[in-house]
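S1.2 Input.
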Amino acid sequence: MGHARCLGSRLGSSGTALVHHLSRRQRQAVLCLAGASRDAVRSSSRRSPGIPSSLSALEKITSLTGGPAVAVPAPAVPLEQELQGLSPLEAQKRLTGRVKTARTLQDFGAVVNAGGRLIDAICLVAILSGLPRSVQRAAVPVLVPSSPSPPSTSGASIAGTARSQMQLSEADTAELGSLVARLLELVSLRLREFDSLGLVTVAVGLAKLSAYTPVPASAFRSLLAAVEPRLPGLGTKALANLMWALASAGVQPCGAWLSHFYAAVERQVDSFSGGDLANLMWGLAKFDLMPEVWLVDQVVAASLAQLQRSHSAADGATVLTCLARYYCSYNFRLPDEGLAAFLAALQPGLRSASPGDLVAIVHSAVCMSHMPSRAFMLDLYAVLKDRLAADPTLSHADFSRLLWSLSRVDSTPPRSWLREFVEVSAPKLPHLRPRALSELMWALACWDARPSPRFLSEFYRASSRRVALGEYVPAAIGDTLSALAKMGCRAPAPWLGGMLGAFCGALPEAASHELVAVLESVVEIIDDQDRPWLAAPAQRRALQRIADTAASKFAAYDACAHARLVLALARANCCPGSAWLNQQQASLASAWSSGGADIDSATAADLRQAYSQWEVQLDTGLAAELGLGAAGAGAEGQRPAQ
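S1.3 Output.
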């Protein structure tokens, strides 16, 4: 530094010319330190970026040698300090501006804490419009149990007993709860200041937040009372959103309020969009509320007209789901022509439908006993084939509903689709519940499928785990065994023993036809090499318990059911005893003579053969029906049991 000053003192007035022979950085440093004239500095500044003259010599050298200085941002001023000294109107504007830039739950909390009672109705509408979006961004998917399951004795964890649900962390949940409590106080304070759309926006926002923290029903009832006089002035979207909010929060309006609401809907029914009509019907159906039939007809007609223009699968799936609910609750059903028109309107939009909407469409149609056309089902099968193999794929719940629906549709899928469907279904087996597993096997049986040994092995493994947990009910067991018998499958003895044990453990809940189905299927699907296992004492006792339970339900059996029951026991080589047979023969003779379902000659011959295996006197009336005389009846009864 001293050397630079010495050099500068020697330059004098003539040193300015020598400056130009130096490099640019050297030239600037020398001129600054030597106190060169302003003219020399200005002449050199034309060739280099200017340097503020107010800087000290050390700052100038630092700026020349170290690059541009970094600006240090000023510390953020707390919102409370920003509001100090402002008029109430200016403070409210400042708060509303902060709400528009808020992105996180903490941002909204800071606005509410700082504003307090200064927050007006406009600011509250903005908060309850943006806060749900911030909460949704902060939520993460969490697996929660869908229903309590008994603990496994083997300690194995069973997949498929949980579903994904969006949840906040514990800290965010606590913060949101306190924030909503403060917002409800402010809403109550400003209730008279809201306009009609503001009341609807507040209701929708609180309904969305109720999925993450409890919102008292009294808050919604206050909003209902405030909006009731303004219902005639609400537009179509506001009416639909209001009903959606009430249904989401589970707060059902009273009859008088609904009458005014229906009147407002009727005046604008032709002006609703497809999405608004879907939201409106969803809200009403969730409450099991059905307006007058003439209004429902108008809403359905408007929905169909919108779908014929938009082909929106999401809107159509919602409308059909609501109609299926009305059918189950009120026996209200569109004619087949109307349902066919809905499906035809949705058919062009199947490719863009979500997996859940595809399932909802076919499931709702089947629930209403409507069989879709072959053309519609072929398009649906093609789209489902892609959805089953790609993401996002069907959830396990949707997969179960799909199986239930497809097994009841008259249109059989193509063989190529069926082969791929079986392969795609195999990885889902461990995640399916017993009902879904039985629906899967029943659907494959209806389609005359032939599952591979690998698929059957996976199925036996998955269903065995469910049996160990005691989750199988008699209906699911009966359907599963019947489906395996229909497909000609053979079941291993350990798996079959588990199914028999589970069925016998729930015999009081079993229906009469399920008893017959289980007896028939067990005998048919047992492997030939496991026949000795079926004759073991444990299995004999199980078959006898099923037969004894069937005896208590003889009054519900017709001649065909009686014949199937006896033939199944005969094939199992299981004699139910003379008392049981006497009771059964009397019941069969009564059912036969009462003009119920008849049996053919081949079945009658099989019955004669079955009775011939057991030491029991054949009923005279039954012998006549079977084509045997009295002598023949006595002779048949003397044959020893095998």
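S1.4 Remarks. The chain has five domains: 2-65, 88-150+158-232, 268-411, 431-529, 553-642.
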